[in-house]
Design goal:
Elements: H1 10-18, H2 38-45, E1 86-88, E2 91-93, E3 102-104, E4 107-109, E5 112-114, H3 119-125, H4 129-143, E6 151-165, E7 171-187
Antiparallel strand pairs: 1-5, 2-4, 3-6, 6-7
Length: about 190
Amino acid sequence: MVGWLKFDLKPSVRRWHRHTLVDHSIKVLCNNCDGLQAADVAEALSPSVQSGFTPFIVIHTTKSKRSSRVKRSSSDCTIIGSSNCCRESLYIRFSDIDWDWVVMPTGFQANFCRGVCQLSTHLQSNPSGFAAIYEERNRAMKNRGIAFETCCSPTKMSDLSILFLDDNRQFNRVEIPEMSIETCGCSF
């Protein structure tokens, strides 16, 4: 038989999940190989075979009910009507932006920063020698009609791992840096 074979690995993966301190593996056996040598079977499973099929495993996971509570970042926009700097939720579906070549995930939590930054609030929550000089300089500049502004911007970003099909129909995994905003804060 040439082509893709599909196996249900749910029981094995569940066992792996229960026993996380042990290394796990999958062993492929060929009971009806009719005299083929082990080297022939290995060659048939090799990604370099001209058939163009590269073995891979896709495992979909969901959080257990015990850990279903999502820890909110302290900078999340939770107070309705608040104008302070915070992280707003934004989910991007790859199909909505014509990234149909992405196999997994189907989308990601991008998020964005919004809100105003009160300089005095920022300086109180982030005291430093620079902050004190900055506040004094800002006071002097305001007297001349010029003011510095702080802005609400990302303070922590995370990477996104995607699985995609290339032009040769091969699966590839890549990390795209800084695709998701984790926290927001006021910056100078």
